[in-house]
Design a protein that fits this description.
The chain is mostly helical. The chain is 70% helix and 0% strand. The longest helix has 33 residues, at 82-114.
Length: 129
């Protein structure tokens, strides 16, 4: 039965039913988020402490590389509209810049972890005379 064909009482009952469904859906979503992310509040949005910073940066770099390839497909898609291609090209630029920054940090970290040979001191000149 269409909403317009219902009596006032039926319309009110339908509104209550829909509101109850929405409330139940909201409660289920909140319970899921609490189970997934913890209790509501600022702590929900704070990232967990990082134990292996280099490994996490490496994972981020790999994920960014995949995302860059996917976004590049949108930028180079001939069937898409120009605005979508321009937005994708802009996103690819930012993704590449982020990936380069992560690579620089990982490269700098790997040099400090593995050890860089110390600069040799200039040899003292011994004069004979």
């Amino acid at each position: 039965m269409r909403y317009e064909d219902m009596t006032f009482e039926e319309q009110q009952a339908e509104k209550r039913r829909r509101q109850e469904e929405a409330d139940a859906r909201y409660e289920r979503r909140q319970a899921f988020l609490t189970e997934l992310l913890g209790p509501p509040g600022v702590a929900r949005f704070a990232p967990p402490p990082v134990r292996d910073f280099d490994a996490q940066l490496g994972e981020h770099a790999a994920q960014l590389a995949k995302l860059t390839r996917l976004t590049l497909n949108y930028a180079l898609n001939d069937d898409g509209d120009l605005q979508t291609q321009m937005n994708a090209a802009s996103a690819v630029t930012r993704l590449i810049q982020t990936n380069v920054a992560i690579a620089r940090v990982l490269l700098a970290k790997s040099k400090t972890v593995q050890g860089v040979p110390a600069d040799k001191e200039p040899q003292a000149v011994v004069s004979q005379g």
